[in-house]
């Protein structure tokens, strides 16, 4: 699964109607609602949208015939294996009726055009881990974690050492545990949070 790196837009004109798609990454339902509120244009005839976060999804036809706008936008999201994404397709009516099939192709096609142009990043399941180590091992552990692309979320100090909070990809957890143990000669302690 992938999500979007940043907000992307695309426009196209179909039989005198102008369509604008705005797609962006979202983290939860509240951020999806905020994204839709910010990127909907109240001067347009229709602001149709869809979003997906894991198994949760919503879509809206905003006055277009049922199933002709929101579902095709959601299908464009799903068709590109995207998650944590919201898309708003705004339509300014140009005077020519498109029919149900034409609307589905216009909304779904505009959304797909926008999503294809967007820069994507892979979604990986991550775990938060805590590493407690001696001060003597701290520099080496931090250097090796950073070299492997492991993000250090926070660092705090105790009387005898340091505590690091790191974000690990789930599949790297066991290898990281072994690395920390080897680097500290078994003195460091690594615990995983669920």
TrEMBL record:
Biological process terms in GO annotation: regulation of translational initiation
Recorded GO CC terms: cytoplasm
Cross-referenced InterPro entries: EFG_III/V, Impact, Impact_N, Impact_N_sf, Ribosomal_Su5_D2-typ_SF, UPF0029_Impact_C, UPF0029_Impact_CS
Listed GO MF terms: guanyl ribonucleotide binding; ribonucleoside triphosphate phosphatase activity
One Pfam match: Impact_N
Domain UPF0029: residue ranges: 131-187
Boundaries of every Impact N-terminal domain copy: 15-114
Similarity comment: family membership: Belongs to the IMPACT family.
Protein name per the record: Thymidylate synthase
Lineage: Bacteria, Pseudomonadati, Pseudomonadota, Alphaproteobacteria, Hyphomicrobiales
């Amino acid at each position: 699964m992938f999500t979007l790196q940043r907000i992307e837009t695309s426009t196209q004109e179909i039989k005198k109607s102008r369509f604008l798609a705005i797609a962006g990454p979202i983290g939860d339902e509240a951020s999806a609602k905020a994204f839709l509120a910010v990127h909907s244009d109240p001067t347009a005839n229709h602001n149709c949208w869809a979003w997906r976060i894991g198994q949760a999804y919503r879509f809206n036809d905003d006055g277009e015939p049922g199933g002709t706008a929101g579902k095709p936008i959601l299908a464009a999201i799903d068709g590109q294996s995207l998650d944590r994404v919201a898309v708003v397709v705004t339509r300014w009516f140009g005077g020519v009726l498109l029919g149900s099939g034409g609307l589905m192709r216009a909304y779904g096609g505009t959304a797909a055009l926008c999503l294809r142009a967007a820069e994507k990043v892979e979604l990986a399941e991550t775990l938060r881990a805590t590493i407690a180590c001696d001060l003597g091992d701290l520099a080496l552990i931090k250097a090796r974690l950073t070299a492997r692309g492991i993000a250090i979320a926070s660092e705090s100090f105790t009387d005898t050492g340091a505590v690091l909070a790191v974000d690990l990809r789930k599949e790297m957890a066991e290898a990281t545990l072994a690395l920390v143990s080897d680097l500290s000669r078994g003195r460091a302690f690594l615990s995983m949070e669920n």
